[in-house]
């Protein structure tokens, strides 16, 4: 009989839905005080998870839930960079 592996779930800070970790994108607040997208999921720092959609990023920005999750202030410039990185991560063309 095959063993059933447990799928790790994480909550999106935008829509607040629990989803498999592999479907979400990790945003990390590094010890060097940078906020960036972690495609490997292994970077050092405090992480938060977002669905790969602009609407979830916009919701997280509006509610400041990403700032709370990462325990840091995030300037609008960083949100714009995250938006661009998110588009590249979703559509690597």
TrEMBL record:
InterPro entries: YlxR (IPR037465), YlxR-like_sf (IPR035931), YlxR_dom (IPR007393)
Domain YlxR positions: 10-83
Tree of life domain: Bacteria
Pfam families per UniProt: YlxR (PF04296)
PANTHER family reported in the protein's UniProt record: BLL0784 PROTEIN (PTHR34215), YLXR DOMAIN-CONTAINING PROTEIN (PTHR34215:SF1)
NCBIfam families, per the entry: RNA_bind_RnpM
Protein name listed in UniProt: YlxR family protein
The species this protein was found in: Alicyclobacillus fastidiosus
